[in-house]
Amino acid sequence: MRVAVCQLNSRDDRKANLAAAEAAVERAADAGADLVLLPEYVDYLGPGASMPAPEPADGEVGQFFAAAAQRRSVWLIAGSFHEAGPDPQRTWNTTLVFDRSGTLAGSYRKIHLYDVEIPGRVSYRESATVAPGDQPVVVDVEGLQVGLSICYDLRFPELYRQLATDGGAQLLVVPAAFMMHTGRDHWEVLLRARAIENQCFVAAAGQTGDHEPGRTCYGRSMVVDPWGTVLAQVPDGPGVAVADIDLARLERIRAELPSLANRRL
Ligand SMILES: NC(=O)CCC(=O)C(=O)O
């Protein structure tokens, strides 16, 4: 199974954002990808005041990505978008997974919301407009068990441990819009740690560059193997990187260094 991570610079123009995402899916499919991962808030990353109305999973955004998956016959993890929920004040931050026929195969609502205040650097209160999800999700992608998460979730290792143990995940995916200020010191360390401690592949697709005022994303989308080795990485700016998921390597690492099996708590 070949996985592609697509790095984008989504802004406040949904039409342009979707066109860029579609072009990235095309590029990934041309590179032989079976599974394509897009970043968090792929359809809109701009000021809250001009955000398009939130939609259900089968709204315009969902249908757009279903068609993209079907057109290129790829599995598509469509980053995340603002899903309409029962609370008119708050959406969910939701990732949708489409199979090769464009059928919705799973979805996940971000559990850990980004409420952070770093004076002069980052001021963000995601929970003001987004409601948290409460369900870890693993999707079967043609026999590969894929654990879903979104961005800030990356800082909560207990989620990934649950995905890998109870859920049997072999690949952990992280659509993200990780901030520049935190990303340059934490992003790669956290991704490689989640891969090593859970003996899983990790694929992370990030937003990159400037978005709304005061929001610059780090990018550096990457695929990491269960040993913690970075297999592929997108440099600064939009782009696509691909890597092959070798499950024999995962099994060998788990057999030779059985830290998952040796857990005592
Ligand atoms: N969109 C997010 O969840 C941002 C997370 C982030 O930047 C971090 O440092 O954590």
Automatic annotation (TrEMBL):
Top-level division of the source organism's lineage: Bacteria
Is rRNA processing among this UniProt entry's keywords?
no
Annotated CN hydrolase domain residues: 1-247
Spell out the Gene3D superfamilies in the cross-references. Answer: Carbon-nitrogen hydrolase
A Gene Ontology molecular-function term?
hydrolase activity, acting on carbon-nitrogen (but not peptide) bonds, in linear amides
Which keywords are on file for this protein?
Answer: Hydrolase
What the entry lists under SUPFAM superfamilies is as follows: Carbon-nitrogen hydrolase
Which Pfam families does the record cross-reference, listed alphabetically? CN_hydrolase
Q: Which PROSITE patterns match?
A: CN_HYDROLASE (PS50263), UPF0012 (PS01227)
State the family named in the UniProt similarity comment for this chain. Answer: Belongs to the carbon-nitrogen hydrolase superfamily. NIT1/NIT2 family.
What is the recorded name of this protein?
Predicted amidohydrolase
Q: Which organism is it from?
A: Micromonospora phaseoli
